[in-house]
């Protein structure tokens, strides 16, 4: 369990209970009462996890800055709103992001343009290059593959790998799994990027059509797992983050990914991976689970239709909303902050090298 602090938890809980009871009595609307109770639930979870709230600045000089989005590749009004909010955010805070992290489901639906989905598809210009303009986001777009990237267009995962090789593009998906050490000569963070589309996660038969669904092969999954363990055994930067599309744990409608819990959870904890970032569930979440070092950050509000949260984990934060996540890293700490599609901050936390967690927007 990460080292976490709290301050007078009993007094805080009494205050919450009194105010929630008063709010429920004043407002007979069931929906409003439910939202108030959800606030109580999240506050109780934070106290149960022994989390101390603390305000923090958006960023400080000398940090690495990244924006995270998942489940965005729709070309929809919602994707545009989130992209615009990201542009306003970096301008307002005078940030030049070192990179964008594209957390899978980068392209939804069958490409009906002439020639279909290829490296020359107009979707690359309309939904990637122009949606996240280089004038605002000059850094690379580090990507991982989601289930829709495999399923919606035949060979779609291969197209995304090939697009990386086009001259002058920012899209960066050099292979299905890869490592990045970022922060200069003395890297601040090691990213291990994985393909979570294991055969038992994304493969099998499609329930509607009965056709086989594309995924990693069993041999690829085995090779990736061996690579994952090998890279974790090597020297790493002060912070380690694993990026993939499917969550290990989630309160979203998909819930926990059983195969990843079985295969990856122990590895994350044994190697003190600081954070696992992902998408798949169309919402924003932050999970701190009892007895586990790793923080789980889900940023799946990039543009696809949102879905209600249905899980039962008691966690610091979860909300059905479109939005994005800002990640800043310096030598002492990492800071994650979720923002909605208007650019309003929703939830944030700081994580130290030793696993200490502090909540605060």
Distance between the termini: 22 Å
Largest sheet geometry: 9 strands, mixed
Looking at the structure, the CATH topology of the largest domain is Purple Acid Phosphatase, chain A, domain 2
Q: What would CATH call the homologous superfamily of the largest domain?
A: Metallo-dependent phosphatases
What order do the strands of the largest sheet run in, or round the barrel if closed?
Answer: 1-16-15-14-13-2-3-4-5
Judged by helices, strands and strand pairing, the structural class is alpha/beta
What's the domain count?
Answer: 2
- What overall geometry do the principal axes of the alpha carbons give? globular
- Average pLDDT number: 88
Poorly predicted segments: 1-50
Class of the largest domain in CATH? Alpha Beta
Instruction: Provide the succession of SSEs.
Output: HHEEHEHEHHEEEHHEHEEEEEEEE
**Shape-level CATH architecture of the largest domain:** 4-Layer Sandwich
* Tally of strands: 16
Radius of gyration: 20 Å
Q: Tell me what portion of residues adopts beta-strand conformation.
A: 15-25%
Number of helices: 9
Provide a descriptive summary of the structure in words.
- The protein is an alpha/beta fold and 361 residues long.
- It folds into 2 domains: 1-53, no CATH class; 60-359, Purple Acid Phosphatase, chain A, domain 2.
- It is 30% helix and 20% strand.
- The longest helix is centred in the first third of the chain and has 19 residues, at 30-48.
- 41% of the residues are buried.
- Mean pLDDT is 88; it is low at 1-50.
